[in-house]
Amino acid sequence: MSVMTGNSQASLHRGTSPTDAAAPSGFACVAERNLPSMEAIHAGVVSETPDDSGLHFRPVGDVLLEVKNISLRFGGVKALTDISFDVREHEIRAIIGPNGAGKSSMLNCINGVYAPSEGSITFEGKTFTHMNSRQVAEMGVARTFQNLALFKGMSVLDNIMTGRNLKIKSNLLLQALRIGPAEREEIRHREFVERIIDFLEIQAHRKTPVGQLPYGLQKRVDLGRALAMEPRMLLLDEPMAGMNVEEKQDMCRFILDVNDEFGTTIVLIEHDMGVVMDISDRVVVLDYGKKIGDGTPLEVRNNEDVIRAYLGTSE
Q1: N or C: which terminus of the chain carries fewer CB neighbours within 10 A?
Q2: Is 301 within the bounds of a domain?
């Protein structure tokens, strides 16, 4: 892939001040630049070459998603209670909390798996009390799940191709016969998928059945399938669960690259606090289905309620 860069600015992001720039930690230092859209991958103009400054550059825009007073009940069990927060365009928004805090339930409400008992969700200025999963996908929201749901007997390429389903316009008969416009359309989609495979550095495994791959590579395929949808917003449910340190570093890099190069907004659930604090712009904290913290990583790290939820008290 070739290089696309923009004009950088001196302002820093992710809660860092100008004095912090001298000694950035991990991925914590981020400034702004002009970025290619997701469509740029069609032309093969996005690359992995970093800016000369060595910083990650990315603007954060207006509110893309707003969750307002969401509550979710299963009979007498309250999974979520009066949760409100927003997600801005191009940012990485983390949702954290102890096990059973309601994090995955929150994502399930956003992408239409669950219907909230109360509250509303606004996406791109349109407000819904409930959306079905297909409607959410058509609006540009993609999702990965905590437990892999790949087609283990299919190749890497074919698994990622399933993410192009909503983009395919030919009817089923033409697709089955693979003739005329259906053949040309499939070729275009396969070219797009090949670029995703290159981006995720899994070229050597493109024809390998997914079930034969190590766990870390299967996670990349799961991410690739979501990227094949060309999402405006990507929901990642514990993308680094079960990974070793090297695999986590690779996944962090891919998440940052997706956010930086494609401009994709990311909502992330993750238990590794080092990862969350390094790559997130803002963090919302849930505990027993209630919001107990919301802000920059530094603000959340110093929040007494968050510390109490994770570490307990001596009382």
Answers
A1: C
A2: no
Residue 162 in any domain: the answer is yes
The DSSP bridge pattern shows strands 30-31 and 265-269 to be: unpaired
Spatial CA neighbour of 237 closest among 134, 110, 122: 110
Q: What is the DSSP letter of 208?
A: S
The angle at the Cα of 18, spanning 16 to 24, to the nearest 5 degrees, equals: 55
- Any idea which residue has 């339930």 for tokens? 105
Asked if pLDDT for residue 220 goes beyond 70, the answer is: yes
**160 domain-assigned:** yes
What pLDDT sits at residue 30?
34
Instruction: Give, in order, the Cα–Cα distances in Å from 258 to each of 95, 137, 227, 228.
Output: 18, 18, 9, 12
SS3 state at 168: coil
Burial of 82 (0-12, 13-18, 19+ CB in 10 A): middle
Domains held by the chain: number = 1
Residue with tokens 């991925």: 27
Q: Categorize the per-residue pLDDT at 12 as very low, low, confident or very high, splitting at 50, 70 and 90.
A: very low
